[in-house]
Every structure is written in structure tokens, then in C-alpha cells.
Amino acid sequence: MARRGGWEVLATGGDEKAGAGIAAGRNTGLAVADTEFVAFLDADDWWAPDHLLDCVALLQGNPGAVVAFGAMRKSSEDTVHAIPSWVPRRTTFLPLPGLLATNFVPVSAAVARTDVVRRLEGFDGRFIGTEDYGMWLRLGLEGTFVYRDALSLYYRIHAGQISQKTQLLGESALQLREEFLSIMRARSGAIPLDAMTIAAAEAGWQEILDSLWYHGHLTAYSAWTRRYRKVFGRLPKLSVIRYGIAGYLHMMLRRLCNRVGRK
Question: Are residues 144 and 210 in the same domain?
């Protein structure tokens, strides 16, 4: 542990070969943190100058908020990563059911209350590459979030990072959604499973299924389509035409259109 500019800083890492990945590294830092608030910065990213001070101020000014976060810019893009239009600016809001549709909180762009994250026993290492998403979903049951409406994070894109592993991340996120819906059903009254919540969960599930299919992970697509039917009681959109020759031709056409659109 070291102090830099009034902040406690701990560098940690995870050894995936030894069974300790990103979640273990973050939990190591969390276990020894002696601060009211905690932030996590991946090695290939960097913070905007006012990110920490502004997020802490927002949390201090909103005692019911458990997470404050800002926007992200990828190194491969000139524009800031879009935050859903329904998210208010510098005002607390309930992140569920929106989080069931998509993870809109970049882990390195967020600051959280240390005691709440500890109470939830930190990051769950079962969900490889989506540990942060699992944390936000669980924190969404604990309190409100607040978005600072400013650039917080510069996210560097490179070939070796885990975010490039489409199938691994997709299946991990689907497993997480499936488990979280079960938790919500068990915690009756915490967040009602109303039509809006179910619609958000279905939309998020279908988006990942679409990505698995588009990238050719057809075995995973088929398996999670069956689980979708078990969870929601119906097949996802387009699933009927995504098998056999017709599905393959549809996939190739989509890829061609996307390639032409990027030129």
C-alpha cells in the first residue's frame, strides 16, 4: 500500500493459471483498503484528472448512492462511449432494470462505497471477464448510482485483452444474468419482476445471443437459446432462421453489410 496525492494505492494482479484471476486481484486490494471509497483501475487504462475527486464528491453528497461513475473513451475511437439516454446526469437513479439490458458502468470509471462492496464479499471470480458486471447488478439491489456526466476513463484497446474474447464474455454474461434473475425471484419485493424488468432482461440476453451467432459460436448459441426458452418461456427473436444453410447465409450477409458500412 502506498499513498499518492492523498489517495491509498495498491497494485495487485491475478494469476489465472493458479486459479486467481481479475476478481482475486481486485478482492486483494479491497481486503486491505482503509478508505471510505474504493476505485479499481486496470493496468491498460488511465483516469481523467478530475475523475476521483468528482465521484467522491457525488457519493458524499448523496448518502444513498453506492456507486458514482463517469464516461469512457476507447483508444480506437474518437467519441465517448455512449451512456444510455435514460440515465440522468449528476442525479441519483435506480440502475435496475436497466443493468439487466446492458452493463453501462465501466469498472475503471467507477468509485464505490468500500463497506457495501465488502458486505457483498467482493467480486465473484466464477464470472470470467464479467466480474464487474456481477458487482454492479448486486450493488443495484443495495442503493442508487450516480453518473458524473464527464469523461472519467481512457480505455486502451489491444489484441491480448480479455474483452476481445467474444464467446467467453458472452457466455459468462448470460450465466450471470440467469443467476441474477433467480436471485431476484428469491428476494421477493427487492426489485419486482414486472414487465419492464423482464423486457430489459430479454433484450440483454438477445443482444448477447446475437453476438454469439454473428461471430460463429453456434454451439454456444444453441445451448443458450434453449436456456433462454426455459427462463422466459419462449424462443428468442430470429432463432428459428439461424440454423442450417439459411442461418449461415444470413450470417454472411450480416458480416458483409457491416464490413461495407465501416468503409
Answer: no
Closest CA to 107 of 86, 123, 85: 123
CATH of the domain at 140: 3.90.550.10
- CA nearest to 35, candidates 67, 3, 2, 8: 8
User: Based on C-alpha coordinates, what's the Rg of the chain?
Assistant: 19
Range of the domain at 138: 2-155
Is 88 in contact with 68 (CB distance < 8 Å)?
Answer: no
253 phi/psi in degrees, rounded to 5: -65, -45
pLDDT band at 15; cut points 50, 70, 90 = very low
Q: Which residue has the cell 448523496?
A: 62
Closest CA to 193 of 144, 143, 202: 202
- At 175-210, the pLDDT tens digits run 999 999 888 877 765 556 788 888 999 999 999 998
Of 155, 182, 207, the one marking the end of a domain is 155
